[in-house]
Here is the input.
Amino acid sequence: MSYKENTEYFVIKENPIILGIETSCDETAVAITKGGREILADEIISSATEHARFGGVVPEIASRAHTEAILTATERALKNANLTMEDIDAVAVTKGAGLLGALLVGVSFAKALAFSYNIPLIPVSHIRGHIAAAYLADKGLEPPFITILASGGHTAIVNVKSFYEHEILGQTVDDAVGEAFDKIARVLGLKYPGGPNVERLALNGQNVIKLPKMLGNNYQGSEFDFSYSGLKTAVINYVHGETQKGREVACADVACSFQHAAIDVLIDKAFNALKLTGYKTLAVSGGVGANGYLRESLKVRAEKENIKLILPEKRHCTDNAAMICAEGYLQYKAKNFADLTLNAQAVVDGI
Ligand code: KG4
Ligand code: ZN
Here is the structure.
């Protein structure tokens, strides 16, 4: 029987051991979970330092780095979990969105494993993976809840209605918040990856620079939408203006003021979404979820408003494979398997 025919007959286990693979950007990540939420191994090999001198991720370098790292990451994961490939019940892999060449490394490798060991191949949306990181942080968590999705490519307030139903209440109409962090980092002369460096610099600054409010009163779209390009331009203009006037730029104040403007609006809209839906649980997902100012501000507000807050570990906010296992588990239960024609997708519609 061909692999394709087999996908119909795979036996669904209660607590499958899932090997997850994530290669959408510059992290080669392989994790193993039992039943979706119990992490047995969680490996990440990053090529970030190789990209730093170019000021951003270079797709070709990322793809090559994945090719070099994927076998090592997989072997390490199996070793740390004290398992062999014979113990693995299914392979979950990020199919997109992301850098096409980078994704192809993970997808091809996952296909080879699934075919060789005759186990299900589970395609996973990277964004759904980010959202599913919440299930790793709280083993008993069940929808519904609101999540702030804040990554390098996405910014949205998402209503997680069920394990399988996600409604975008609002999203960015231009840049993503992580992208804005990265661009401001560049303007301030900070290295890639920008987000953590802006956060670090902001610790020495104050929120004293007035920046424009996002999306004015005349905006016709969703009240949960965002726009980061105006904020970014305002910061760039401020820095250039100061330089032209021959004044020394107060970089730490710029970082701090930008961070407040970029993050406060995420928090306000998320709490408005909680009010609208009547939900009592708020989660955070995506790389910007690792931001300390965001995390601390959310803790204060959640306590005040009696909201249960799910903060995934920082390493599960940025790209990782444990989140791919968590989402892969849900897709496994729904028998959403792929055959060997599975392809990577640079862009995925919706989430
Ligand atoms: O989710 P992620 O790892 O990759 C994408 O799917 O995009 O997010 C990466 C983004 C980058 O823009 C990075 O600068 C930002 O998350 N980021 C942060 C922090 N850590 C990562 N932004 C602000 N503060 C941080 N601590
Ligand atoms: Zn990501």
User: Anything to note?
Assistant: Residues 143-313 form a domain with the Nucleotidyltransferase; domain 5 fold (CATH 3.30.420.40). Residues 126, 130, 151, 287, 319 surround zinc ion (ligand 2) (CB under 6 Å). The beta strands are 17-22, 27-34, 38-46, 90-96, 121-125, 145-150, 155-160, 166-171, 281-285, 308-310. The chain has a mean pLDDT of 96.
